[in-house]
UniProtKB/TrEMBL annotation:
Classification lineage: Bacteria, Pseudomonadati, Pseudomonadota, Betaproteobacteria, Burkholderiales
CDD domains: YdcF-like
Residue ranges of domain DUF218 in the record: 54-190
Provenance organism: Variovorax paradoxus
Pfam families given in the database record: DUF218
Protein name: DUF218 domain-containing protein
């Protein structure tokens, strides 16, 4: 009786088993990171900022989708504008450079959204950053020059754990009293941890951790 092919070459079966194990471990790790992000996001949504701050720093993402303001970014700006209306923050700062997906400057798009929403207070623009880490490093001198000493960082819920780590590792929190505001955008409310950004965030965390930015 002829033996199956995999029995004739047992090393191939062993290699396939190892690769399958590695793949399953990777999927499990990715899912675990995603679950932790979701838990942390829900915690921040339940505990919004309480202390008045000099400014809200809104971090950018894709500015437009199908020719219209992207609802994920619009929700971040709307959250900052709402905080300004209640007196929690005095001014708004928008950080984000040219987005490769739509060719628009995120900071400018956020300013336009804030004006449309009725905000008429002072605004700072940081239009050059292309990553979360650069959002913080390039915004710091602008905020300091404007006399800002306390900041509420605004982003979508899934994004904030990585932001917190980057703030600590970069020393951003040594320059400012920092709070965090999770923006309940329509993207998050519709899909939560299954939104596009949330699904990509574990990969960003692994990438940043591997490069020594988080720990």
């Amino acid at each position: 009786m002829k033996r199956p092919r995999w029995l004739r070459r047992p090393w191939q079966a062993a290699l396939a088993g190892v690769l399958a194990g590695v793949l399953l471990a990777g999927v499990a790790a990715y899912a675990a990171i995603g679950a932790f992000i979701w838990w942390h996001a829900e915690t921040l949504l339940a505990h919004p900022p309480q202390r008045p701050a000099d400014a809200a720093l809104v971090l950018g993402s894709r500015a437009y989708l199908d020719g219209k303001p992207h609802p994920c970014l619009a929700g971040r700006v709307d959250t900052a504008v709402a905080m300004a209306r209640t007196g929690l923050v005095r001014q708004l700062a928008f950080s984000g450079g040219v987005d490769s997906e739509d060719g628009r400057t995120e900071a400018t798009a956020m300013k336009e959204r804030a004006v449309t929403a009725g905000f008429a207070g002072p605004m700072l623009l940081e239009p050059a950053s292309t990553s979360t880490r650069l959002n913080l490093s390039l915004s710091r001198p602008l905020l300091l020059a404007a006399g800002v000493r306390s900041v509420v960082i605004v982003s979508e819920p899934f994004h904030l754990w990585r932001i917190e780590r980057l703030v600590k590792m970069s020393g951003f929190d040594r320059s400012f009293d920092v709070q965090y505001a999770a923006a309940p955008t329509s993207c998050w409310n519709a899909l939560g941890p299954l939104s596009k950004g949330a699904l990509r965030e574990p990969a960003a965390i692994v990438n940043n951790a591997f490069r020594g930015f988080l720990f």
